[in-house]
Amino acid sequence: MHLEDILGTDEWFKCKNISLICDLLQLPPVNGRPVVNKISHKIVKTKVRAANAVNISKETVEYGEKIINERQKRDETFFKMLDSVKHGCVTDETIHTLKRRVFNALIQEKYKELESEGTGPPICLLSKINTC
Question: What is the C-alpha to C-alpha distance for residues 67 and 89, in angstroms, rounded to an integer?
Fold first, then answer.
């Protein structure tokens, strides 16, 4: 379904504010295809029926940047390391930091350790397959 069908008009976004939230510097998938596929100028013109459709983002989108990293804000070493990896810079120090932070205990033992901290049961996100 197209936005035009949902909003019932062919005006740009029908004067609605639409938030597009993404990490423009996100690392590509380790094992899989990219999330976003490139679209040719010809397809954009055909679908939107406008010669200047490619410039829609420059004309209608206001860019704002999140500058506070909430997840790693208390761990400056890890924050800097992830930031450098995001920009394609992997150093020996980065590899050393990652090796230091990987726990070798069985997942059941780690779960019990986290559960004993008294903050409630931990939420664990585990990969079903080896993706690296």
Answer: 20
